[in-house]
Amino acid sequence: MLYAYLVILVTLYLIGLVLAKMQTWAPSVYLVCRRWWDYQLVGATVGTAVSVVGLVLVHGVVLVSASGDTVFEQHRVISDRLAQLGTVDLGVALLWWWHPVWHRWFARLGLVALVYHGGFQWTKHYYRRPHETQWQDLGEQHGLDAAMRTALGTWWPLTVSSTYYWTGTIMALALVALAVGSHRLVREGWYALFRAIHGVAAVVFLVVGLVHHWIVAVAFVGAGGLWVANVVARAKKAERGNVLALVPVAEDVVKLQVSYQGSDVAPGQYLPCSFSGSAWKDTWWSHPFSVSRIDPQRLTFYIKARGRLTRQLYEMAGDKEAWPSVQLGQPLGQVWAGLECPVVVLIAEGIGITPWLAVLQAAAASSSPATHSTYVIWTVRNTDLIAPLINETTTAHIDWQIYVTGDYQMESQVESLAIPPSCSLAPPYSHGRPHYPTLMESIRSRHPTQDVAMGLCVHDDSICANLARSKKFSHSQAVWHVYSERFDV
Ligand SMILES: Cc1cc2nc3c(=O)[nH]c(=O)nc-3n(C[C@H](O)[C@H](O)[C@H](O)COP(=O)(O)OP(=O)(O)OC[C@H]3O[C@@H](n4cnc5c(N)ncnc54)[C@H](O)[C@@H]3O)c2cc1C
């Protein structure tokens, strides 16, 4: 045992030495390792790291150790194991329902595993059929392909031939509904429909799955139990806050201030907020909003009227009597970890500036700021949003670069596009869209050897998001850490 520890320690030491040398020998390898270290390992808790490594190992061992006397037998073993793994993956996705990234990735893993399993089970039948006596003649006369093609016509008798097949088919259809129903087109166009499909398909998958195989019951009763515990724990930690202010600050944008007793919110995070007044309904249907300002016992949000709830909030603003109470769930999302970076670049489109306001507040409050240069690139449609939101920040040394995309050439709009005098910082602004490659290149060339923390809250298809995710700006002397926030779930 002692030898094993020694070997591990020496190996780690040697890896460290090699990595340190990599900076000069092979900068791109060094960069990949450093990104892994910075993004994946340093920020993760020990628990998360152990879970992820454990899960990767489980997937690897289960698949690599599959063996059989024939190739067919080997595939059968893999198919069965993937069915179990896929079920567990979906169970994990269920457990992490509140975490969009993990939920999505485990659901995808489960889907891929179950597609393999289903595909194998169906082709197994068609593979065998041509070898059965009544199909052999056909096979001999017209070849295996022709026999298999004809065998395809037997799908219905196959579907109803055994409990495995009919339940498996329904489960496959439920998975298709889950995948198609959560497509971005559905989520963005009909959010309530997406939630309904997700709920119904998940229940169908689960109930039929119990008939399909007992393993589904074991996996989902376990995951379901933990899921219920998680929902209850979150509901218990949720807190009901009073609305302290609800004021319109620009066209279709409202400022919401809520009393909050918790102390666990950090810049960059968002809170699930619900306004129905019913504890039960609030547990199931909340809306995420990024916190823009964290004060003792008070949180501030800026909310853009987008759909039913947000428009209701906007319309309620004038009528104090109608102000709802707010249930605030536990804070979620990535905590901004860029305070240690010498250079900070925050990029936002429209209301996407909200998480970065809290980051700027934290930077201004820091007693020993490590950041010496802060750039904010913000694209807005109209100038009326600029003054109220910029006035929320107190840091003087911010290089604001604001782009107004509204139709400024129309005579009637010229006046409303002027920055109001109430804007204390009066930053310069340009019309049109930013040319992100040029802007980022100029920042990079100003700080060629300094690490940059970049926050992005832009539309997913924005050129800037792709550019920032590319490795273009990082090199061995300066790493660009990218933190993305997405308002599209
Ligand atoms: C992490 C995160 C932080 C956000 N922060 C802010 C913010 O600071 N300010 C702000 O104005 N907006 C923010 N949003 C967007 C905000 O959550 C939606 O605009 C709001 O939920 C729309 O609700 P609705 O009933 O008015 O509109 P709907 O018509 O119901 O939906 C409009 C769109 O909003 C999204 N959406 C709706 N309901 C939900 C929900 N329960 N959960 C997630 N997305 C939903 C869907 O994409 C939907 O297509 C944030 C979103 C996310 C994911």
TrEMBL record:
- Segments spanning the bilayer are 44-66, 78-98, 164-182, 189-208, 214-233
Give the organism, scientific name: Absidia glauca
Location(s), subcellular: Membrane
Q: Which PROSITE patterns match?
A: FAD_FR
Gene3D superfamilies to which the protein is assigned, alphabetical: Nucleotide-binding domain of ferredoxin-NADP reductase (FNR) module, Translation factors
Keyword check for Phosphoprotein: no
Membrane topology (UniProt): Multi-pass membrane protein
An example GO BP is: reductive iron assimilation
Q: What cellular component GO annotations does this protein have? A: plasma membrane
Could you tell me which InterPro entries the record lists for this protein? FAD-bd_8, FAD-bd_FR_type, Fe3_Rdtase_TM_dom, Fe_red_NAD-bd_6, FNR_nucleotide-bd, RBOH/FRE, Riboflavin_synthase-like_b-brl
Put simply, this protein is called FAD-binding FR-type domain-containing protein
Name the PANTHER family on file: FERRIC REDUCTION OXIDASE 6-RELATED, NADPH OXIDASE
Q: Which UniProt keywords apply?
A: Electron transport, Ion transport, Membrane, Oxidoreductase, Signal, Transmembrane, Transmembrane helix, Transport
Q: Which residues form the FAD-binding FR-type domain?
A: 236-338
Q: Give the gene that encodes this protein.
A: ABSGL_12289.1 scaffold 12745
GO terms of molecular function: ferric-chelate reductase activity; superoxide-generating NAD(P)H oxidase activity
Per its UniProt entry, which superkingdom is the organism in?
Eukaryota
Chain segments annotated as coiled-coil in the UniProt record: none
Kindly indicate where the leader peptide sits in this chain. Answer: 1-20
